[in-house]
Design a protein that fits this description.
- Pfam families: ROK (PF00480).
- Its EC number is 2.7.1.4.
- One of its GO terms (molecular function) is fructokinase activity.
- This is Fructokinase.
- It is a single chain.
- It is built from nine helices and twelve strands.
- The strands form three sheets. A five-stranded mixed sheet has the order 3-2-1-4-7. A five-stranded mixed sheet has the order 10-9-8-11-12, with helices on both faces.
- The radius of gyration is 20 Å and the shape is globular.
């Protein structure tokens, strides 16, 4: 069965069609319209174009920067605000004459990496995305675990664990709370901390390069970052003990994370033992759209 995945982002919509074995059959990206009716038209147009090119119909999954409320059936919490308050899956399904599955884009990332990515074959996979912001998804046996409220994996909007006196009440998050994990370990948070300490950089990648070049100030910032990331992931391990943690987003490209984090994680995990593999994603920016296709299973 051909599976089509759609990644609905704030600036682009991307469709990929996958064969049963995960081989890519078709891919196209277009700008995202800034209103709901045109967004529906754009997705439907991509599906029709893919099917016309390939000469077959397929299933459709869509990853969105938000969730469909299990209570109202309407999209909520999307930063692509024009899709909020609409039954996206039902509207697409009605026009395409088939069921359409919709999931949070971080959950799609976790599914992609669990099905045929860096965590292929693992039963419980936690996918953490560390970029401009910080989010996560959970895949169990290759399927999304979104929970009864539709918010499974909302890791970044919990408080940073085991805060020091200096960290407490030190950051404001767009969600309305203080000291969220996102404000400390996202790329934005990493840079904020470095600048607050007197450094100057525009990205976490730049700070890591400065550290590699021998900058002691950058190394101190990275050590603080790793300690905060370890605390944040230790909470995940203490609660759900996943078989593997896969990291995505721009910050996940800092190779030193994967050598330094395992040295710190056991300090915060119950029992002071931890061998949970924490690995870089396999599919990079393509993981979300591939995961949307795999919402229909392999």
């Amino acid at each position: 069965m051909m599976r089509m995945g759609v990644d609905l982002g704030g600036t682009k919509i991307e469709l990929v069609a996958l064969a049963d074995n995960g081989d890519e059959l078709f891919r196209k990206r277009i700008p995202t319209p800034r209103n709901y009716p045109e967004t529906l038209d754009a997705i439907i147009g991509l599906v029709n174009e893919a099917e016309a090119n390939l000469g077959e119909t397929g299933s459709v999954g869509v990853g969105i920067p938000g969730v469909i409320s299990p209570f109202t059936g309407l999209v909520k919490n999307s930063n692509s605000t024009w899709i909020n308050g609409h039954p996206l899956d039902k509207d697409l399904g009605s026009r395409l004459n088939r069921e359409v599955r919709v999931a949070n884009d971080a959950n799609c990332f976790a599914v992609s990496e669990a099905v045929d990515g860096a965590a292929a074959g693992k039963g419980v996979v936690f996918g953490g995305i560390i970029g401009t912001g910080c989010g996560a998804g959970i895949a169990i046996n290759g399927r999304v675990h979104q929970g009864g409220n539709g918010i499974g994996g909302e890791w970044g909007h919990n408080p940073l664990p085991w805060m020091t006196a200096e960290e407490h009440n030190s950051t404001d998050c767009f969600c309305g709370n203080k000291d969220c994990i996102e404000t400390f370990i996202s790329g934005t948070g990493f840079v904020r901390d470095f600048r607050a300490a007197g450094g100057e950089a525009t990205s976490g990648i730049q700070i890591a390069q400065m550290m590699a070049d021998g900058d002691e100030f950058a190394k101190q910032a990275f050590d603080r970052f790793i300690d905060r990331l370890a605390r944040s992931l230790a909470h995940v391990i203490n609660m759900m003990d996943p078989d593997m943690i896969v990291l995505g987003g721009g910050v996940s490209n800092i190779d030193a994370i994967y050598t330094e984090l395992p040295k710190v994680l056991p300090q915060y995990v119950v029992g002071r033992e931890c061998r949970t593999p924490v690995v870089k994603n396999l599919f990079g920016a393509s993981s979300g759209v591939r995961g949307a296709a795999w919402l229909w299973g392999k």
